[in-house]
Write a structure and sequence with these properties.
Elements: H1 3-47, H2 49-57, H3 61-66, H4 68-85, E1 88-99, E2 103-112, E3 116-124, E4 131-138, H5 141-155
Antiparallel strand pairs: 1-2, 2-3, 3-4
Helix pairs in contact: 1-2, 2-4
Length: 156
């Protein structure tokens, strides 16, 4: 085999490996935010509401310093809601939306005995790690599903 063919084959392998490493590196960075969501629900399932909320906000020191009352309010509101809607039965990530490489939004349906609840997580990456930027939940998801169905029938 000529020397040029060996070099070309070797260069193609190097380029492929570099491309693969770059792709894996990009995927891992995006997955880090998703892992924060997964970890949030694992903590909720094992340790409860307070620990899950504290853990997600520990990613962003600015929120902890500026809004401790807001964090406590989230915990209290969630605890009150759970008393009304029954036992927790899991969650599903229903949408993931990236805005560039620095913002990502996850929407989850959290399954409770009496009704679903929507959880929204917005993560922001200003340097090398994802931090929670916004977290909220509401129980209006059924109203929006009904509106989407009306829209779907109207335009189909």
């Amino acid at each position: 085999m000529p020397k040029e063919n060996i070099i070309n084959k070797f260069m193609k392998q190097i380029i492929f490996i570099l491309f693969l490493l770059f792709f894996i590196s990009c995927s891992e960075k995006e997955e880090t935010a998703k892992l924060l969501v997964i970890n949030f629900f694992e903590i909720y399932e094992t340790k409860g509401i307070n620990d899950a909320v504290d853990n997600i906000f520990q990613t962003n020191e600015h929120i902890i310093q500026q809004s401790p009352d807001k964090i406590e309010s989230i915990k209290e509101t969630w605890c009150s809601l759970v008393k009304e809607i029954g036992n927790y039965h899991g969650y599903e990530i229903i949408s993931e939306y990236s805005l560039g490489k620095c913002l990502i939004h996850y929407c989850c349906v959290v399954k409770y005995e009496k009704q679903p609840v929507r959880f929204n997580f917005i993560f922001y990456k200003y340097s090398d790690k994802w931090v929670i930027y916004s977290f909220n939940f509401d129980n209006n998801i059924i109203d929006e599903v009904e509106e989407m169905v009306k829209f779907h029938y109207f335009y189909n």
